[in-house]
Amino acid sequence: MNFLENIFQRLAQDPQRVVLREVRGGSFASASAGELLASIGAARAFLRGRGLQPGDRCALLAHNSIRWVAMDLAILAEGLIAVPLYARQAPVELAGMMKDCSPALLVCGDGALRDAIASAWPSAPPCATFDEIFSKEKNAVLLSAAGAQATAEAKDPHSLKDADPVAIIYTSGTSGEPKGVILNVGNLDHMIPCTLGRLDLLMAGSQPTDRIFHYLPFCFAGSWILMLTALSRASVLILSTDLAKLADEIRAAQPDYCLNVPALLERIRSGVEDQLQKRGGIALGLYRRAQGAWSRGQEASFADNLWLALASLIVFRAVRGRLGPNLRALICGSAPLAVETQEFFRMIGIPVLQVYGLTETTAICTMDDPRRVEPGRVGPAIAGVEMKLAESGEILVRGPNIFPGYWNRPEQTASVLKDGWFLTGDRGEVEERGNWRIIGRVKNLLILNSGHNIAPEPLEEKLLRSLPGAQQVMLVGNGRSYLAALVTGKVAREEVVAALDKLNADLPHYRRIHSYQVLEEAFTIENGLLTANGKLKRDAIAARYRAETDAIYSAKDSKS
Q1: Alpha carbon distance 313, 210 (integer Å)
Q2: Do 262-325+328-442 and 445-559 fold alike per CATH?
Q3: What ranges do the domains of the chain cover?
Q4: If we measure between CA atoms, which residue out of 364, 371, 201, 350 comes closest to residue 265?
Q5: Among 85-94, 166-175, 232-241, 371-380, the least confident range
Q6: E-strand spans in 431-508?
Q7: Does domain 3-256 have CATH number 3.40.50.12780?
């Protein structure tokens, strides 16, 4: 039984069980397993009516919702290849991806998304919206006695083999045009049992049903894997519908765990510390004493433990309460998490479990074992997956999680698949127990004209954390004699100077940042300077701000 057959069987076994919820204000809109099957049946009937054949591509452009899940499962059940797209991405970029994979049908969450694509791509394939596919009339028919046959068909997905592709997920494209990563049945059949195993460890001894809060777009590989995993176990997946109300939604959801990106966890930590700073008094003093006690670890004294206990009762409990009383862990992936932030959450009593992987590795290579978490590392390789370091320090991976190739890009596929190993492009290190740490991207290395190689990410993270008003930091200096920083956000010059002086004090001369430029415009997805999952498009930023970068070095050199 493959992953899809297992999901459909579980849905059919207990049709009354609630499996999905959307947070809508202070209430929930829920879907039982039976209702989800009915919606899948409506979508499958629509797809068949359009004459789509197994192997055809179907693009899915919508925000997370119960309908998104039903549409995705219907696409897979019909033997089609799903192409999930990011609803916030620029229409021109989305059109480019679709031109690359030539979908037979585009499904949009609403008319606004449909119109945006039509404007960017007048010759786009036929498009349907969720309202057209999931009309009340169609669902009413499916839920009636006359619809029993359609609902029964929804439980029986198209027969799939291990090598059959089920999705094309476009990579972020940090330094070039996005590439379509093909994932097949075999990839998912290996990955989902691995994620189930880790969640079993996390939830050991708890209630039979997981409550999962989810806000990351399903079009990202890791987010999609979580959705499929949730449907493969006794879970209620609770979907955010308004990122502006994330704090209220997570309190309402009261989850056991949720998947995060480092940026959100950094914001939570900064928000707590800013509020304590403004509040001052006993709470701030207690927090600072507890921080000092926590940093001493095993060398903590009786007094240290007393401060930690008091902080837990008075300060930390209030922070935990904002995230819900049931929270067992925060799961974090997509980029390295600052050790200080992971330690912050550990201190307040919420472990952060890190995951490392790429779209090409079916989202995951390593996962923290909840019983043995080491801050700053991303856990050991998952079962059945081998990882090693090349002489250059690049991480190489092989196993059943490795994608079969990029869509219509044989040369680029061959460039990253060598002798059965996938070249991740990431630099890392591994300790004796097999716990990995990610250092940065190989291609992001800045090589000074002195010959020194510098990974920019760790320095960028440290500088960003020391500048509360900053939104992003990117280092430049490739081929130059020293490093400089581009900083976005509301930051005063004296703040940047003070932060650089503090950071540089502990660095060797070649890693010091000698100059900077504060930019008025932030890097965003909309202006083409961030990828769909929030990573810096370094080549695009360097090109956009070439004049400003040249001015940094000209001004500095003229003073030398």
Answers
A1: 27
A2: no
A3: 3-256, 262-325+328-442, 445-559
A4: 350
A5: 166-175
A6: 436-441, 446-447, 453-454, 470-476, 483-489
A7: yes
Q: What is the CATH number of domain 445-559?
A: 3.30.300.30
**pTM, two decimal places:** 0.86
Tokens of 200: 């079993």
Cα–Cα distance measured from residue 444 to residue 453, given in angstroms and rounded to the nearest whole number: 10
Query: Between β-strands 421-430 and 417-418, what pairing exists: parallel, antiparallel or unpaired?
Result: antiparallel
Token pair for 165: 């592709």
The gap between the terminal CA atoms of the chain, to the nearest Å, is 69
Nearest CA to 135 among 199, 82, 67?
67
The CATH number of 262-325+328-442 is 3.40.50.12780
In this structure, are residues 199 and 210 in contact, taking their beta carbons and an 8 Å threshold?
A: yes
Lookup result for tokens 């002489």: 391
Task: Report pLDDT digits (tens) over 354-386.
Answer: 999 999 999 999 999 999 999 999 999 999 999
pLDDT at 556: 59
Strands 235-239, 18-24: pairing kind: parallel
- What mean pLDDT value characterizes the chain? 90
Please state, in angstroms and rounded to a whole number, the distance separating the CA atoms of residues 463 and 470: 9
Distance CA 97, CA 100 (A): 5
SS3 358: coil
Cβ count within 10 A of residue 229: 24
* Mean pLDDT value of segment 300-329: 89
For residue 511, the SS3 value is helix
